Batch of 2 targets.
Target 1
Amino acid sequence: MSRHTTLPGPHLTALYLLHAGSMDVRLISLSVERHWKHAVRLVPTLDEARVVLVDCDRPGVEAAFEQLGPYPSAGIVCYAFHPKDHALRFPNRLILGKPLNLDALPGILAKAANDTAAIKATVTARRQVPAPVPTPPMAAVETPSSLGHGLHMDEERDLCGAMDDIPLTPGTPLSEKLFFAPDQYLIGHLSRAVEQAVASGRPHVISGLPHLIGVQPQPLPVCVTAFRGNQLRPFSMTQLPHATARIVSALIFSESVGTETVYAAEDFLWNIAAWAARGRLPVGTDPYQRVRLKAWPNFTQAFLSPHALRIAALWTRTWASPVEIATQLAIPHRYVFSVFSSAHFSGLLDRNAPTVAPIAVIPVAAHPSPSPKQEQRPSILSRILRKLLNAV
Amino acid sequence: MRSERARHNKIIFSGTVGAGKSTAIAALSDIPPVCTEAVASDETAALKKTTTVAMDYGLLNLPDGEKVMLYGTPGQERFSFMWEILSEGGIGLVLLINNANVDPLKDLENYLAAFKKFIASTAVTIGVTHMDRAQEPGLDAYRKKLAELGHDPLPAVFRADARNREDVATLVKALLYTLNPGLVDA
Ligand SMILES: Nc1nc2c(ncn2[C@@H]2O[C@H](COP(=O)(O)OP(=O)(O)OP(=O)(O)O)[C@@H](O)[C@H]2O)c(=O)[nH]1
Ligand SMILES: [Mg+2]
């Protein structure tokens, strides 16, 4: 069977989703519909594809690759949670990390499609299997990690972005990239649903997504959903088309009994916000305004971004702006912005700083030690900490 | 003196009966934890004299050879006379409150009162256990109670399952950062 590509337009990359789960198919379709209409076209058959996207984490991926035999000029882009593990199984394949970076994906797909076409043009097709794409894996780039929590470099970029610090004092216009619009993400819908449920005392449901998300305001606010943990993260990071989600008042919200997970609303909001924020601030935030954390989030369930424990320890006791917190702890601003965004949506942020007696900003490491006994502490505390960090 | 110093490297676990102190220490300890109450009943009378203390004892071995003791105070209040003695010189307190008890917020108040002096000179983090069996009161009720009791800033309060090592480690990490947010893991 020979392959006859039908190219609908000069710039559209014809994409076939091979071996992708239904959830991913929906997410990627939504993204194409909303953002990439002019760059990518999803095609229903391999015949029409110029590039295929393959989920390596799902069982049977080898068989899926075999389907590609007759289509040597289709570009192949894989994705997986742990690209490095699969790099051994599928050497020379381009394997992206999950969750997919949706901003970069259209470019990567187009490049893979073109590269394969170029190879095809110079090396006459004599193989049964598709030619490897000679692009280095995405995971191998980016800056060195600066984390104290053993997070992997890919994860750092995914979860807190890679944004540079902003100026230490106000005055310079801030980049738009520093901010995100909550309404474009799940967090915007969720935070409204929780608000409405709590205000009315009635359960509310967010529908229109691959699974329902129920919000029960009483006796303690909880969110209930059949979304699995590993689906929630990529879903929270994705921009949703505006009309996708609807919030409705409901009597009950049971979708399919037994498969749902119940989360404390505060923890759920914290996490969904962190994943949307990726080291950014909600649009409209003044990063130089002093605020405080009302309380520590529930860090056994709430997402622990890099340095989050230190940030919480300091921010529950000090009125300080995000930039001041980062300066005191000598950490990149984006980690503090991440905590700020989560605290904002989970209701843990106190913005009513007292107007009198501003708190002097002392670098925390320079706190005086009141007694000789305590002088020993930093070293032993640090060593206990290292032990716990390495062991957990 | 080294032995003198080592005596001060201890983290105290306290809390209500059945909250999970022994379990938490076992989860974190590098040695099989010792429960002196059990030991006392099996040992000779002479030994008993020194082990009337009903407490749990675990150990963290640091890479440089130094040891950190994990002390669990007896949960039963009849042993409360020794809580202060046990905690003397300790680094800080991990307080576990069993949420399935009749009045866990009252328990919280009692334990904070009993450790008032110790907490004032060190720090405390609070693990609310058995929340899988008893959802209420929620963490917010604990925070409100702590604020009423005059704790400002509020100590860390986490939902914790003492059987989960990571939960217990998170409580201890929060304790260390409460003592010094500038701490780096060096
Ligand atoms: N379901 C549930 N069980 C827990 C939790 N935490 C601890 N347990 C269990 O609770 C029981 C009591 O735990 P212990 O560690 O003996 O409690 P303790 O605080 O040492 O009790 P005393 O020494 O009697 O004061 C054990 O069976 C634990 O496994 C939790 O969060 N949920
Ligand atoms: Mg015990």
Target 2
Amino acid sequence: MIQAVAPKIEKNYLNEKVGLLSWLLTTDHKRIAILYTFSITVFFFIGGFFALMMRLELLSPRNWLVSAETYNKLFTMHGIIMVWFFLIPSIPGTLGNFLIPMMVGAKDVAFPKLNLLSWYIFMLGGGVTVYALFRGGVDTGWTFYTPFSTTYSTTYVVAAAVGIFIAGFSTILTALNFIATIHSMRAPGLTWFKLPIFVWSMYANSVVLILNTPVLAITLVMLAVERIFTVGIFDPALGGDPVLFQHMFWFYSHPAVYTMVLPAMAVISEIVPAFSRKPLFGYKAVAFSSIAIAVVGFLVWGHHMFVAGESVYSALAFSFLSYCVAVPSAIKVFNWTATIHGGSVSWDTPMLYAIGFIGLFTIGGMTGLFLAALGLDVHVHDTYFVIAHFHYIMVGGSVMAFLGGVHYWWPKISGKMYPEGLARLSALIVFIGFNLTFFPQFVLGYLGMPRRYAAYPEEFQMLHVLSTAGATILGVGYVLPLCYLIWAWHYGRDATPNPWRATGLEWKSSSPPPTHNFEVTPIVTAKLPYDYEAMKEELELV
Amino acid sequence: MITNFRLWPESASSVAGGVDLLFLILLVVCTAVSVGIAAFLIYSAIRYHRKSPNELGTQTRYNIPAEVTWTVVPFIFFMAVFVWGAKLYFEIQRPPDNAMSIYVVGKQWMWKVQHLEGQREINEIHIPVGRPVKLIMTSEDVIHDFFVPAFRTKQDVLPDRYTTTWFEATTPGKYHLFCSQYCGTKHSGMIGWIYALTPVDYQRWLTQGAPEGSLASTGEKYFHQFGCANCHHFNNQGRCPDLRNLYMRPVLLTTGKTIIADDSYIREKLHDPDAQVPWGFSANVMPNFTGVVTEEQILALISYIKALGPQPGTQEPSSSGAAPAEYGTQKGIGGPGATSNAGSQVEKR
Ligand code: HEM
Ligand SMILES: [Cu+2]
Ligand SMILES: [Cu+2]
């Protein structure tokens, strides 16, 4: 306690240099992580604002708050911002940037300047997208289906596409940087099978991003070319094929949905062992399941097109492969659960988020089984069932994991502790709000409520009202951490280097770490990852 | 205020029960597994809750039999669901041979419906219960989607091609029709009703508000109006194929390939006449009708051509549109005569 209140005097990455320029020109991966944290938080709340407006509009079956035109722009901008400017960069840009070099015992990423460039490119892409939004928005849906997007929409489609196109380069560069770092900068003795699973998952994630983002880029270029120069690619009136667009989009986007969840799995795979004081159960199974997801994830895109005029035989193949890709996800769930069993389980906030994640991800994954069942998907495709399915994974899963990760590494990042009681309460509010928002949407979907409807028949109202009520609770659950984390940054209790007594290399550094992460390059002598047994004395565990 | 609140959708088609059954079974199994996992998680979190700050968990790292079990068992379960879902899908996707056809054209933001008997409807479709109905659909602009929750059927409606869906209503009633593919500003207004009528009511509906004539007879009018009849008549010296007995028959092409003269083939003739030229005829003869005929007119023309000849395998009452006099005597030339077993590429898979 006495040690905790003693003022810190040593230099760390936060206080070594001061001033705005020292941040804007930094090549320190930890400071870049903070820059990303700042940007994606802003984008999250912009996207969240759109969501709230949609939920309010849906309180009534008629258009009472906004027009249909505005509603269509709301869901489009919500999707675009949340997918490309929050979910995909969220964990990689923030926790990935901060932790990968530290976890491998390096001073920085392999290409620090490129890392800074990534952030600027990301901001440029975000800027262009926000420009499109203020000029009047886009109304195509985040999926940009043709020929609506190329020929019929009168909104700022090209501007939004350019914004996403630009942001894609940032994604590619960051992924490249991570891969290079993981390959070439590991501390002496840190072999592949001693790496924290976080690193494995982020590696798999980076490979996917490098392979799929160029496909999105070329698809958006083709879309823009058709829209600007009326070259027939997708619009049948010009001799194109509208379904071709869907193939290209989902060939990108199915892997993309996995790049929104692989980083979340990465975080959970760290929190669960740390708060159970136990090695991750089935380390190799979990590591290889990430690779399996990355590979098989590229082969299932057609499951988004079961009623789009796809031949029954390709539907058959895509359904089969979708079930195959569900297996590695199941493996992870079982291994996380087995890790908790027999551990020394703490109920600190990160663990609450992790347990919440496992539950919600399980529901999200299981409803994927419903959707991959061909005859069933015919009914629920493009209804609220699908909306609920992917929000369980991307919000119940990825956002929860992100929040869990932020709490877990907060002492390391900020050098301060967050207020535990308030944080637990917020986690509970998020969990309740989330379920109240999205569970009714499964019911709505099976009842036949189509997605992207600004107005709807009266019989759906009750469930929509429930969902909106949940959304307001969820909103509170998101604003609370924003407030107390900012508070904690200034006034929180000072953190010790390893407050959770976890095993990763990042905890061997001070909190917050010095600019070069480690006073001396760590040498890894442990034989296994998460080696509590060997570190018992060091961590004072019995 | 809030009316008709329900938690389970109406089910009114021959496939709805099968879909619901699969859904329910999955729901039961998945709920059981989820609850099991959640209970185990909560149990472990409580049972192994940290008792002292220095406590360490048991250091087990893996268990191969467990690993194999939770890989193989889910996989087997997934395969069972896969097979079941696929069987259901084939049932939902393949219309029975004796289905009656109705044509549907989607456009921003309405559904236009044409019955073979000549009735036209907008955002409403009247059908008889107990008879399979096959919809042949296309779009004039963007992609739409024809979704009837009570029937558990859904099919995207694409521009420039025909897609089909079918259903057999089992219970008379009024059911929602939704557009389920985002199609622009008034997407949520692109909704309508399906009226499933008893056979008696359906007959009464057919005779009410008597249309000017069957769809085929409207097609016949267009056949003359657009000048089709100028070439495709009995003594055209072999410049163009005879269209009698063409519908759903194999056509030998100049490429040596054989295809079935289905709706898509006939539609393509109007938009891109030289894409597939029948054996014995030359390209650059038939004019391109793009921008001249509308999708609805094409559908009428198709049903006229359909009426010109028998269609193998269907017991549909042939519509009242009769062949024009000049077709009465002339023998078929070229194309339609060629035979092959090749399946059509679009319609019947
Ligand atoms: C556990 C394995 C999973 C299976 C079997 C699965 C299956 C499916 C299927 C079949 C669809 C298409 C549904 C339709 O449009 O009718 C779908 C949609 C979707 N899934 Fe999954 N899914 C799984 C996991 C995930 C994960 C991990 C994510 C994201 C992190 C995800 C995100 C999405 C999204 C975003 C959509 C809808 C996209 C849109 O239409 O806008 N799914 N899923
Ligand atoms: Cu997918
Ligand atoms: Cu629509």
